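RETRY 2/3 - previous attempt timed out on the joint model. Re-submitting the same 1272-residue input unchanged.
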Amino acid sequence: MTAIPRSGPAAPLRPTPLRPLRLDEVELSPESQLGRWQQLNRSATIPHCVTNLESSGVLDNFRRLLGESDKPFTGFWFADSDLGKTLEAVGWETGRSGDPSWKSFLDTAADLMERAQADDGYLDSYVQGTPDAVRWDNLKWSHEMYVAGHLIQAAVAVHRGSGDDRLLAIARRVADLLVATFGEGARDLYDGHPEVETALVELYRETGHEPYLQLAKRQIDLRGQGLLGEDRFGPQYFQDHAPVRETTEAIGHSVRHLYLAAGATDVAVETGDTELLEVMKKLWHSAFATKVYVTGAHGSRHRDEAYGDPYELPPDRAYAETCASIAAFQWGWRMLLATGDAQYAEEMERALYNAIAASTSQSGTEFFYSNPLQLRTGHDGSTEDSPDQRLSWYACACCPPNLARLVASLQAYVATTSEAGVQLQLLTAGAVRTTAPDGSPVELRVSGGYPWDGELGIEVSGGTAPWELAVRIPAWASEVQVAVDGTPVEEAVGSDSYLRITRDWSAGARVSLVLPMQVRAIAPHPRVDAVRGCLALARGPVVYCLEQADHDAVVEDIRLVPGELPQPRDVDGPDVVLTGSGVAVAPEVDELYVPGAAPRTTSPQPVDITAIPYYRWANRGPNAMRVWIPTTEKAV
Amino acid sequence: MTAIPRSGPAAPLRPTPLRPLRLDEVELSPESQLGRWQQLNRSATIPHCVTNLESSGVLDNFRRLLGESDKPFTGFWFADSDLGKTLEAVGWETGRSGDPSWKSFLDTAADLMERAQADDGYLDSYVQGTPDAVRWDNLKWSHEMYVAGHLIQAAVAVHRGSGDDRLLAIARRVADLLVATFGEGARDLYDGHPEVETALVELYRETGHEPYLQLAKRQIDLRGQGLLGEDRFGPQYFQDHAPVRETTEAIGHSVRHLYLAAGATDVAVETGDTELLEVMKKLWHSAFATKVYVTGAHGSRHRDEAYGDPYELPPDRAYAETCASIAAFQWGWRMLLATGDAQYAEEMERALYNAIAASTSQSGTEFFYSNPLQLRTGHDGSTEDSPDQRLSWYACACCPPNLARLVASLQAYVATTSEAGVQLQLLTAGAVRTTAPDGSPVELRVSGGYPWDGELGIEVSGGTAPWELAVRIPAWASEVQVAVDGTPVEEAVGSDSYLRITRDWSAGARVSLVLPMQVRAIAPHPRVDAVRGCLALARGPVVYCLEQADHDAVVEDIRLVPGELPQPRDVDGPDVVLTGSGVAVAPEVDELYVPGAAPRTTSPQPVDITAIPYYRWANRGPNAMRVWIPTTEKAV
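RETRY 2/3 succeeded.
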């Protein structure tokens, strides 16, 4: 097996039901929601990350190893990973746009790392620059493999994006040292923070060098034996509570869990381990059937950044770390390729338009680390832990460059191919130019204002024989109208959520779809106690919220009347805002607890309601917000 | 001013509206709820704490300073405080019962501390036993004054209890060093964990030595200037976010906030600082009007052990630390004496019978650190942070000995005196023998099964002139029947919540009270989102809960019908258990989110319901529990 040239993230070497496209085979329309975001990432977010690598001292941490800075080590001991993720973003972005403007940054970083790297390949600016620190001596906390993983992923992305192999050489020396130190017959240990597993598989994919895959597999096989030792954070925090193949529930630190799951899925795919893949399906079900937020966010607890119990999903204290949503998106992609099951793409889309999108400001330069679904009137937003506004940077700056690397590669997740044909997984305007099953070129030109408009046009062309166009229809789209060249078709959306149309497309044809874009009320599972008596509003894949800036009534006082959902108002920018009527019921007494079976409120007064897309909240100064809105109906 | 002999906790030297009684002036009936608890504390909890001081290495931490142990320092760096609190418990218990059996433990501890204490008075087994540690160098985290504070409180309690002044001498040397190091003109600094403030005031009360009071005042005056320096926990965690006199909201680490408030109240009282006392009233209102649980627990966040925003009161992730409830109880006592306002005693009683009582097992030897109001089916109880059962001891063992010291002194909080007469603050069976305003002896003999039975008898006698008997009537007691010697009286419960009867009691008389003991539904303030659509059950001061052990239906599925509250069933032991009927509605589909405005459930089926006192939960193995029970009515 040899590497796929210019592949996007996580392109398996082994055959899988679905195959990813090359980086240059998909293009997002610059007018589309995702395309605009990718442009903003290029013009604002990536430059912001690069600037902050300097101002936060990440690059100086390398310079001091070389005697070129006399500053002390700055930031967390795993700050090198900020550089890794930013370089990965630059790698994808360069590959996508061909933009050469990052060249000097890439050279600066590669030069520093090349010179700082020890002769045997070791590279970690904290351990190398701290007299008392001993290599691999505290893997529970040190993040040495985590840092290595992000460097490896950066090198792979840069290589795929531009062919530049300077970073790849550095990363291979790091990986070779890992293999020598922790490979078969060497030390039995793993990192407290999973990440290197998926990176090693990606490096294997890019280089074809099997020992990288074997080390990734070994990390998965060893993990969960308690080799990291006891700690008051408990073994779940380190994902060391049970052997991976015996786990059945998403617990502990959510980002660590999700990175580990992505890596385990990579290993399962590349080693043909169907048993391990079945374990991953169970873990997915645990998270997505009992622990995910309606925004697609993961991890309900601030304490230990952890998953909660099943159905423990508080909207106000949702930790919902940006990195967890991104990790879940990445894991979903791997599961989609490995299984061909549309549910994974469905969840990727949910996270993308809601939890992930909400983490970046409209300016592209401010970020949420935690993404709550409610901000209360009187919230103390003075700490990084739960600010009331996105912050420019964080002491632990894992999220901003993580966003940058994801968004720079966003087009890679839009479509897949299979032995039958081409699948459109994310319904975004743009162009897909790939090959039909017979190897001949095909093209899809997708137009329409999704996710705001339900009408999509797909100009399909190419292929020398009939092939199957499959369009994933989101689960919320109960009725879809489909026509080819204006004629309604017989094909219906299958129980697998794909609309499959097999034609000879060589002469070109226009597939038209109309998805229902009614405003929808969403009810929670009855065991989600924290939002009892509330509903959420959605339209298409977009979840909405109420924000204080749009209301005279205190947001906490507003109640929705279920039969009277707010409706789209005249367009205001590209996004659709909903307006309508509800009622407000203010507290009648100040007491926290009163006799009686129901709270004491004033009688309901009609009020106007405005709901904005959740991802747009907190762009107008600090104010209260809520996704789950109490209704005037029985709670059940 | 001179010390009050054998006084209980926090007896002010300056005149206050209410005066505490001496330790030996009140006796709890051994059959009463509080009396049984105090017996259990003596027979089980205190011995358990003493045993654990050895097994957890707290005493060995001192022995190693003397070359009598070669073990490394064990436990948290503030482990000395476990010894301080246990000694305080022994002090109060010895004073109460005269039990000499603690003598050898007291001698052992005093001997170790006496010999370990540095010549200049410094005593901290962690700092003294850690080569790199420098005295007072890291007061933000070191807890050196906190440890000193608990030693001082222990010494005061032992001295008040038994007259033994050996510990007092050690504590005075510690305090004298604090005065020399941090007094006026010396170093401007305070401890990251407040505690020493109230201890210094208590030592001043016991010794009459003014510099101790001045240092306490100085600590309050200095605090909040940010002198502790920056930290990623944020200044609220250390209660260093604002000068004490400028604070208006209960925020940050709840135990630190409450200990600080108790100390500031002590300073306000002893320095006659009415302005500072007004600040304390505002802080109390902030906590008790927007942030306290219906069980009387404080601190809704596990992260940073902190208060949440106003109305952020999740029942499942309630941190509700035992020490916070105890600290609030202690602060309430100080506020009660300082103001004479019954609301403080009301909250003390709420916490005592619910949050505080729940933290100890029926065996008296297992404890909750965190006291949630809901434990979910499927809860992961594998960590100390949120176990599903009380634990025998904790890595940070602050709570068990804190309970021991409180319960050993419980009788001291039952009654007060004033210029008018005697006030019964806690309605418990027992005896009060004190003096009338004219100095002549008086006696109250209280009988009845409170808190289970609403009928109380008070045999009143003594005094040479008419004096006022005041009985605090809980706010939930809407109608109270009162008679003296069988004749209904004209006196009614005042708007200040006291029933005041002035008589010539010298010939003896029997006051009879009947409090309404109907089962009550309690509704939350409408902004307490986390329990929307739910009610809590209470009877008298006791809050109830549903526990899975009593139900066939899954606890999460049970709904209360507000008009049909469960009722007391035939007595089963001393506690009253409630039984009745409700309905169960099971989830109809597995999906976490479904279209529609209401959750999908099966149709309601009648079920039997059993509610037990909240404090008794988790004594029958791990199982689901909830205080707030969804109803079949509109949520509002």
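Residues 520-630 of chain B form one domain. Closing ticket.
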